[in-house]
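Model the whole thing, not chain by chain.
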Amino acid sequence: MSQHDHGAQPVILPPQEAWGVIKSLLNPVTYLKFAKEHPILSLIFLVGVVVTVNRFLIGGLAGTTNLDDNNPWGIWISFDLLCGVALAAGGYTTTAGALIFNIKGLRTAVKPAILTAFLGYAFVVYALLYDVGQPWRLPYPVFWSQGTSSVLFEVGLCVMLYVTVLMIEWLPNFTDWVGMQKISHVIHKCTIALTIMGIVLSTMHQSSLGMLYLIAPHKMHPLWYSAHLPLQFFVSSMVAGMSMVIFEGTISHHYMHSRMSPEYNRDHDGVLFAFAKACSIILFGYFFMKWVPIAGENKWGYIFDGKYGLMWLIEMFGFIAIPCFLYAVGYRSRSTGTIKAAATISVLGIVFNRFNVSWFGFNIHLRPEQQYFPSVQEVIVSVFVVTLIILCFRFISKYMAIFSDHPSYSKGHH
Amino acid sequence: MKRRNFLGLAGAATATALAGKAQAAGGHSFDGYPNSYGVLFDASRCIGCRQCEMGCNKINSENVTEPWTTLPKKDPKAFDEKGLNATARTDASMYTLVNKYEPQALGGKTPVFKKAQCMHCKEPACASACFVKAFTKTPEGAVTYNGSVCVGCRYCMVACPWDVPTYEFNKLIPYVQKCHMCHPHIKSGKTTMPACVKACPMEALTWGKREDLIKEAWARISSVPGRYLPHVYGEREMGGTNWMYISNVPFAQIGLREDLGKTPAPEMTSGALGLVPLVACLWPVLLGGIWQITKWKDERAEEDKQKAVAEAIAQERAKAGK
């Protein structure tokens, strides 16, 4: 087991100073100072703004993307939407474990997981503004003309509701910080109801993202097309969520150590082991789940057929069986390093799977020269969005009590 | 209003609402609108002159009703080349185009032409996929698009098995474009049948009621044995379409996919979508139950622990008392 310096309680600014920090956000000098200290982040930010202007005011979709009439969906759907939502699943998995199944050791992981999920979903919606043709109409499906037969309607409705739930779940971090404990108190009373809503909505839209593709069997490779896609997307999202909590916890530990309370540090390895065991079991089930439609629909022949078969085998063994095994070994030998490696592979595996479904294995009926490949500007937007998430995460965890209890809660209050 | 009155009214309203929907619960099946119109294309008659494309461009660039039904006016010379190569496809500036194929079935040198446009499915994938109901299957047979609600998600393009809907990627306020079988122009009296059908000099296109077209198609197939393949493309494909094809060469060799099957697109997602409300109903009860049980178990464990401690203390005290 790795040794941690459990350290002292992190400093949380009193409310009056918190408002000062918020006011400083309105001052351009704050940003110039930040730019001087972080030139690379600032450069990404600047380039992202330029592409944003091009997308909305100058070039439109044609001037920024490689999308065309044959390839209506590109990397903004494959990565920003499908991977974004899957990797933000830490919110519902962690809250389910800590608050519904009442696993005591997970409590300190709840706040960082909710923050990651909230930012993840908020920026999924933000990235969608780039992708849709008329982003100002994004509320139409819910408020104006409801196309209830559409899977995308279900996705849209659930994501909208879930962003709201996550926002409310996250809000106490902010209201505690600025001294509005009354609001926090009201929200805390609703914790279980919010958690259950979050799990219900997550189950629905995580699976619905896979369901989106059920309407296009003629465009997808048979190894990935299956009536089980919704189930596969949901089950793999649990692994994605927990692996991301481990992955991101490791990074946070590196950069945010001074913000972590002794309780957080004490429980940190426990969270790792609990999630490692869970991930190992779920990946084990998921591995066999993926064989069911192959056997049921007699698709064995495709497995050893060309590059798609190879890609499927790489996904199955490299990105599902191997992390499953590593998680189990890491749990048994109490090796945090092995678990972190498994988490990294799992995260990459989810990205690989979502790309296989929505990009590599999609539109395979087209001729090679018609196949989609993202433009530089599309990739820049995706990198830009990830950067924005990191900047927001940094800011919030730098000032608010994310890795600790807010001082206004007396000892043993929970 | 008294509370009881209000409740009574609310109850009556619920009962009415339920009664209105009761018949829908008895199973759902849709065989397409009766008496809907469609078009039959005969590949053996088409000479690739592209008069249909010209007619389409003319009527849809001159009789603009909505911003999304505008096609840019094209120079007649643009239609000079006889049939575009087999790889060309429609874009947002056109609703239809004629492809030229040199099918193996005729030795690979003789050209065969095919007109491509929206197939006007009986149960359209686009309409089922659209999350703002921008597409309508009209009782007259056309699948129309209402751009005033379109968000531009392009799920219709993903869903369409024939890759029909196109998008104005180069515009800052873009819309989807696709053939509407001249539905607005027929409605306004501008024309009596789709402009492409009217423009065809070879009668390769026939306009009529779908039922009649199917009879006509089979009549042609049986009248000259061996001339046509015994298959009306669109009679059953994806649940049936209002635009249908007969051909003297295999459909796959003139760019029409033969692997699409007969299942209407909406059926591919309706089963899975039907499970969603189950999750919404079952999950809260199940999770709420789990939460109660874990809480109860924790409380019991705590009680047992305290009881055991108290007993131990009492025993020790009793021992010490002796």
